[in-house]
Structure formats: structure tokens, C-alpha cells
Amino acid sequence: MYAIIATGGKQYKVSEGDIIRVESLHVDEGSSVTFDQVLAVNNGELSVGTPTVSGATVTGTVMKNAKAKKVLVYRYKRKIGYSKKNGHRQQYTQIKIDKINA
Predict the structure, then answer these.
(1) How confident is the prediction along the chain (102 residues), in pLDDT tens digits per residue?
(2) First to last CA, the chain
(3) Domain ranges, residue 7
(4) How many angstroms separate the CA atoms of 57 and 11, rounded?
(5) How many domains does the chain have?
């Protein structure tokens, strides 16, 4: 059984027991989170929502809130001596999927 959920402007295919990284949700570690934007559910047969499946939810537990590895951005213009180095670390929330309610 799997479901396709939408959160943070992205879509994720999840099953029970999966661990996923989503955009930061600002929820405490160890607390439960419920996703109600379920786009599709497959439990033997595929149910596709228009746009979401009515009555379907996915619940999970927040494992940690952290930052991803640093991404370096380097801008450079030749012949004029311009260069600029910048870095960015994206925040994310790691979630363990507990149950798919369909």
C-alpha cells in the first residue's frame, strides 16, 4: 500500500515505515503530523483524487529538524575581477510515516 502526498510544493510517494525529508514544518521532534493533501492511494487498486482523495490522510512522526549540506554558489565575471562566493543550507524536517488512512 502506498500513497502520494503533497507538502511544501512537492509530491512524495510514501508507504508505511518510510522515512522522508520534507521542507521545514516547524513542528517539535517526537510530535505527530497529519497530511491531508493525499493525491492518490493504492491499496490493491489505484484511487486518484480530483485533486485530492476525500477522507484519506497520512500520519507520521517527526524524527528531527535539521539543515541539509551546504550548497556553494559562486558568481564570476571574467576580465573585470568580479567574483562572489555565497553558501546556503536548506532546513528540512525528517518524518517517519506511521499510517495511511484510506
Answers:
(1) 999 999 999 999 999 999 999 999 999 999 999 999 999 999 889 999 889 999 999 999 999 999 999 999 999 999 999 999 999 999 999 999 999 998
(2) 10
(3) 2-101
(4) 14
(5) 1
